[in-house]
Specification:
By secondary structure, this protein is of the alpha+beta class. The protein is about 15% helix and about 35% strand. The protein has a domain of about 270 residues: Alpha/Beta hydrolase fold, catalytic domain (Rossmann fold), CATH 3.40.50.1820.
């Protein structure tokens, strides 16, 4: 086995900077994780200015800082906000364009701040004791509605003082309510509460065009599984009278008013709350009446961006891409408006309903901010995020298709390195997305816990399969792994590997697989059921559906996909659990998990780890302290990248890698 030497230097002044002395090709892991990103475009009412955010990595603070930037026509963009010990977010324009609002935590709880687009100092407008969750300007600019979570009760404070800290599961929580504050820059008023009571919690909300009413969704409590009881009401802001509007079985949420105020659009599951079925858009008269579902003819989920006089602009996935569509609320027809850039993240409309700002990316670019006239759609780039990787060897991205074991058509994103030779065989790294109703898309650079850029430069190809259950292919495809989790997923992944081997470009002796969440579950299933892989990495993966079911915070997920509880049908739980065939496992397996993961609780990791140890399979379990379902801080993310690099270097490239430790030594006293 080849040994990759890491030279450890002790410095008397500062930490050692390793750079490329680690034997890692291309940019360092830290450079990849330090890439800035742009998002959240918000165009001014007159269409002449665009707000957006830039996020950068703060290594010393082990976190990320997001600040707001402003681009004016004909001028260089500039940074507008500077929040010393936090981030600025939720930026918006006042309806007259004179003010920019945002939320920040500057020494107290999250509050709404205002700043002029001409620059200067931002000032705190709200001083709400419990802080602000979200806010919305009224269309006339005279008020701001916001939500805030209720404080802990005096009873709870006294109980903790007497008996310490404990919590009754699914019975103790704090609800969120709706408030409103008048906008008077010279004399800010006190906020006024609009909704009351411990038997409801407010979620999404929007103002009526005449600024007199607010439509809002609510459910009995904030518990994660209570979303199925979400209903919609309208409140008159001046009288605080509430009129129920939608109260049917299932989840009905995110009400949006039509431009003329006559209709309210909302998202609905029409009583069918299964995770893998389509959500629909429906409308109802603001005065009440029959509910009209208007998207039954479109076989994917639509994300509303803006209801204009021309129609309802929405985003939707179509295979590996996310495009902009126009929905006609009268006929239900859906028209493709834009498919460039290949993946559109969000859209913001000026008052003329033609000038827009968008964020999006293609396989040759990172996510950028653009501006265009929607009627001719010729996006002009505002940001230069992609310039960060201009000198990197990023390879190419292709969309490939193959047939699975049962004949299902499967797509995948194939990454090829620069200088790819179709006559050569390459190590194959298979990266499996989570969800399962997520989608692998052709991105230029990925910077989570898998060193994809460095594997490309090391001479590997990378496959990201959109296995059955992925979004972008319609409800029927999303339903193919119902009562077939793991099994059908394995067919899809293995057949993709076989396809690339048959094409002569994948080395069958050097194939690795990995994934996080549902991708971690599929990786665990592969490690106990498949012989095609030389190494596997399981990130926050399910190892036993019974263990998962009784520990997770989303119990309905399991019941929906397996169509039963363990007590009703233990056989389906056994069929789809990686632990069932633990004795067949031969594949060296790395396990990565967050200490406080509620979505896929850590007993899943311990169960797989112990089982692999018992049957003599080489394994390693790494627990990332203080994390939930994802690794959300840069230092631990850097560690996770190194752990994956080390694991696959050993089993795919036959190399022993020592993870570098930067040692510090106090300066000698004189």
């Amino acid at each position: 086995m080849k040994k990759v030497l890491i030279i450890l230097v002790i410095s008397g002044l500062s930490a050692v900077v390793y750079g490329q002395d680690t034997g890692v090709p291309g940019p360092s892991f830290k450079e990849v994780l330090s890439l800035k990103s742009a998002g959240g475009p918000a165009i001014s009412p007159d269409g002449k200015m665009v707000l957006y955010t830039i996020r950068k990595t703060e290594w010393e603070k082990n976190g990320y800082d997001t600040e707001i930037w402003l681009a004016k026509d004909g001028k260089e963009p500039f940074q507008l906000t500077w929040t010393k010990n936090g981030s600025s977010s939720s930026h918006a324009w006042s309806p007259d364009g004179k003010w920019i609002s945002f939320i920040a935590n500057r020494g107290d709880k999250r509050q709404v701040y205002l700043i002029s687009p001409n620059g200067g100092e931002a000032f705190k407008y709200t001083t709400h004791k419990e802080g602000i969750n979200s806010y919305r300007w009224s269309p006339d600019g005279k008020k701001i509605a916001f939500t805030s979570t209720e404080p802990r009760s005096e009873e709870m404070k006294s109980r903790e003082k007497m008996y310490g800290r404990f919590e009754v599961e699914d019975a103790e929580y704090r609800v969120t309510h709706l408030w409103v504050i008048d906008v008077d820059i010279d004399d800010p008023a006190e906020a006024e509460r609009l909704t009351e009571g411990g038997d409801m919690t407010v979620g999404g909300y929007n103002w009526s065009p005449d600024s007199r009413k607010i439509a809002f969704d609510f459910r009995p409590d904030p518990l994660i599984n209570s979303f199925i009881h979400t209903d919609i009401s309208i409140i008159d802001v001046s009288t605080k009278s509430i009129t129920p509007l939608v109260a049917q079985p299932g989840s009905d949420s995110w009400p949006i008013w039509s431009p003329d105020g006559e209709w309210i659009l909302f998202g609905t599951k029409i009583g069918d709350n299964r995770y893998y079925t389509n959500g629909e858009l429906a409308r109802i008269k603001a005065s009440g009446g029959d509910i009209e579902v208007i998207t039954e003819g479109f076989d994917e989920n639509l994300s509303v961006q803006k209801w204009t006089r021309k129609g309802i602009y929405c985003l939707a996935s179509q295979t590996v891409f996310r495009n902009l569509f126009l929905l006609d609320p009268e006929t239900g027809t859906v028209e493709l408006i834009a498919d460039s850039p290949e993946n559109i993240n969000s859209v913001s409309f000026a008052d003329d309903e033609k000038t827009i700002a968008i964020s999006g990316y293609s396989r040759e670019t990172m996510s950028e901010i653009y501006k265009t006239d929607i009627t001719r759609f010729d996006p002009v780039r505002i940001t230069e995020i992609t310039d960060q990787v201009a000198d990197w060897k990023t390879g190419t991205r292709e969309i490939i298709t193959w047939k699975s074991k049962d004949g299902a058509k499967i797509d995948g994103v194939l990454w090829k390195p620069d200088g790819f030779d179709p006559n050569s065989k390459y190590p194959l790294m298979v990266i499996i997305h989570g969800g399962p109703s997520s989608t692998s898309r052709p991105v230029l650079v990925s910077n989570y816990v898998y060193p994809q850029q460095q594997w490309l430069e090391k001479g590997a190809i990378i496959l990201q399969p959109n296995y059955r259950g992925s979004a972008g292919y319609g409800e029927k495809f999303r339903s193919l792994n119902v009562k077939n989790l793991g099994v059908g997923d394995m067919w899809d992944v293995e057949s993709g590997v076989d396809y690339l081997i048959k094409e002569g470009i994948a080395d069958p002796e050097r194939v690795g697989a990995m994934g996080w969440s549902q991708g971690g579950y599929i990786s665990a299933f592969l490690t106990t059921n498949s012989k095609k892989f030389k190494a596997v990495s399981v990130g926050a993966g399910i190892s036993n559906w019974v263990t998962y079911y009784v520990n997770t915070d989303i119990h309905p997920f399991t019941r929906h996909y397996l169509q039963a509880t363990p007590w009703d049908d233990m056989k389906i739980y056994e069929k789809t659990s990686p632990m069932t065939n633990i004795k067949k496992s031969k594949t060296p397996t790395l396990i990565q998990h967050g200490e406080f993961d509620r979505r896929v609780p850590i007993p899943n990791a311990y169960e797989l780890f112990q089982g692999l140890q018992d049957v003599g399979v080489e394994t390693k379990l790494i627990v990332y302290k203080d994390f939930g379902h994802g690794i959300t801080r840069p230092k631990e993310r850097l560690a996770a990248v190194w752990h994956n690099w080390q694991w696959f270097a050993k089993y795919i490239w036959n190399e022993e890698v020592e993870i570098p430790i930067e040692l510090e030594k106090e300066k000698d006293k004189k």
